[in-house]
Amino acid sequence: MLKRPLTCLLRLSAHFFLLLSAIVMAGCGGSGSDGSALPVQQLQTLLNNSVSDDGAPGAILAVQSPAGTWVGAAGKASLMTGDPMTPDMQVRLASVTKPLTALLVMKLVEDNILHLNDTVERWLPGLIPRGSEMTVEMLLSHRAGVYSATELESLWNAILVNPTKNWTSNEIIALVHDLTPMFTPGETYYYSNTGYYLLGMIVEAATGNTLSDEIERRIFNPLQLTRTHLARQGLLTFPCARGHAWLPTTGQVADNTDWNLSWDWTAGSAVSCGADMLMLTAALFNGRIVSPTTLQKMTTPTEPGGYGLGIGKVEDASVFNTTLIGHTGENPGTATYWYYFPDYRTTIFVAVNRSDVRTAPGQTVPVDGSTIAYDIFVKAWRILRSS
Questions:
Q1: Contacts 24+ apart (CB under 8 A), 307-314
Q2: Does the pTM of the predicted model rise above 0.85?
């Protein structure tokens, strides 16, 4: 059984592990390379220039390529204490959780426990209208039409009133139960966090176990990803980066590390660290999590924007001039970028510890953590390509 993690403590890490040779160690590594040819000084300077007290307090950048492996950090893990961000720190992944959920679902498909054409009604009878028309594959590819509860102002108001509330699955589904589906299931694309919530419920119904236990046993433990977890509450364990978010209720930036993420669960409550994300990527693209055939299906776009089954594939000719496979994430207090560049066998993972609360889609906020993370991501890629 996965033990409930303790909330990250407000204290400075007394140590951090050295990053060992590429992708064979367990746990999260500290700053430094493995004697590689990576442009470490340039990457560290990029991080140093990307953080500020009135922007993203801290940032982590993890890189792996044929030239080597490196995890670096800059800025502050906590504005309250001033403790520095260190490369070993655990962070919240936000929507980079979705590829983890999708990988677990696809492993269950490979094991003939689930099928892509299984309907919501098959595993969760009577739960939602039109559940008999919505399949597992549609949920994975955001084509089921389920309204996303995280677009409801009522949910955000409730979160702001009681951010440590432990939301049940039924409470989240009840928020959207009576809302008209966005479209006929399978008709088009609409990004739905609630669709991924349903996937978590289906996994538990099909296996008879908690999703946390299933993903630990099937993915995290075999790969020795000791700092990566997908628990309903999304609690962090020491050492970790504390989250910071501007709140519309107060007009102030607050530490939101202790928020309970049960409202996002299998759509956005996972935690990890830079080194674990590099290990995960190496395992994924070397056939150690799902088969190459399954991975190809997952990374085959089902819509023009490039989204497949839990993982996006972008053929970019403007900024990167190559193919990217991965996902982005943003929740109050965190923003992440995780992408693999297959033509260059390169992985880049970025996490920053601030992103502000929007109570409605598209709402303007003082700091958009996703924009800061994207800027680091793009500049890191350019540094790697020019070195």
A1: 307/141, 307/142, 307/189, 307/191, 308/141, 309/102, 309/106, 309/137, 309/140, 309/141, 310/98, 310/99, 310/101, 310/102, 310/103, 310/105, 310/106, 310/140, 310/141, 311/99, 311/102
A2: yes
pLDDT of residue 212: 98
What sections of 81-168 are H helices per DSSP? 97-110, 120-123, 136-140, 153-161
Structural domains in the chain, CATH included, are 40-386 (3.40.710.10)
CB 228 within 8 A of CB 284: no
What's the token pair of residue 170? 């039924």
Quote the pLDDT of residue 145.
97
**The tokens 């892509």 sit on which residue?**
116
Amino acid letter at 203? V
Nearest to 280 by CA among 332, 231, 232, 349: 349
* List of the chain residues with pLDDT < 50: 1-27, 30-33, 35
